[in-house]
Model the fold of this input.
Amino acid sequence: MYLSPAPPRVLAHRGFALDAPENSMLAFLRAVALGCSHLETDVHASGDGIAVICHDDDLMRIAGRPERPDQLSMARLAEVPLGHDQTMCSLSDALDAFPDARFNIDIKSADAVLPTVQAIRDAKARDRVLVTSFSERRRRAAVELLPGVATSASAPRFVAALLAAASGSDWALRGALRGLDALQVPEKTLGLAVSAPRILDAFHRAGVEVHIWTVNDVDDMARLFDAGVDGLVTDRPDLALRLLATGD
Done:
């Protein structure tokens, strides 16, 4: 199952990209080699309807090219050089290459919903993925096609849950979190700290895990784990895992 073993957990943000291109097979391999069980990633759709692992709306930042993922076939995207002998990869390839890894999948575009669902089905990976999106429409569409899949809050659902927790309204909080397994959020939103004991306790009582992104400072990692946060999304999974192993 995705939410196993018990927390705390470290989610490698786009893999371990300290010396590898983000969201590449090499970045995922390096995260797994560190001992990371959870890999955070993002998907768009290629021009021929395949779920391709990519965060941005275009290729400019990662490859110096102006095209969008949906303007190129998966075969052409797989030829785009990212450095370190890496190219763009499909979600199917990543799921197949790392059959023991748990993937946290952020659906970045509406046209990526069906290809993402298909890739998860083809890999028989429903029980080891979490599907999410900033868009509630995208999140809900994917979850409805993958009954029982783990999911975390979209941006609107999180805001509603945060305000309910801050106000102390348990019934409103339960409604905002219905059907969700986790909140994956920045530490502070709307001037409210998710890590504040009253708010964090409210989320835990409602039965969801709380994962904070993107935390790269060791002191912040230690503070958040000590506060009871269930997971950290981080570019430095090496530091987070070492912290958990040593308790320092």
Q: What stands out?
A: The longest helix spans residues 155-167.
